[in-house]
Fold this sequence. Notes:
The chain is mainly alpha-helical. The protein has two domains: 15-58, no CATH class; 61-148. The chain is built from five helices and no strands. The longest helix is centred in the first third of the chain and has 38 residues, at 16-53. The protein is flat. It starts with a helix and ends with a helix.
Amino acid sequence: MALAMFYGNLFDSPFVVPVAGCIMILGIVVAGIWSGVRTEEMRNQERLAAIARGVPIPPTAEEIALMNGKPTADRTRRRANIRLAGIVLLGGAAGLILFFITLAIVLQQRDVLCGAAAALVPFGLGIGFLVDTRLQSRELEPTSSSQT
């Protein structure tokens, strides 16, 4: 009886949906990490089995890229993802600024422009990501130009 009362009050709480959403996101993240670890474990087991049979081990994609003197696909993809994040954040910041300027014009309230200051956070992050991408490109330039 007391258990039914507890669960009745528990599910009537307004926090059930946000807590369930957080638990779901946590579960998705843990499942993704576990999947990546399991995939790497299986890849290593296959390589060890090939060594035990005496079969030559095919090189990984990263080893092939290093043999050809090119940056690995992971580093190139990572740099592209960072650049994309920077561009998206700058676009979001510009959208926030335009939104608050438009809202200030429509409402004819100058105080609404304070909301445009919130756009400084994604703007700063976007600039930081683009600077990081540029620094990574400069680090890779000497290795790619010396190999050609």
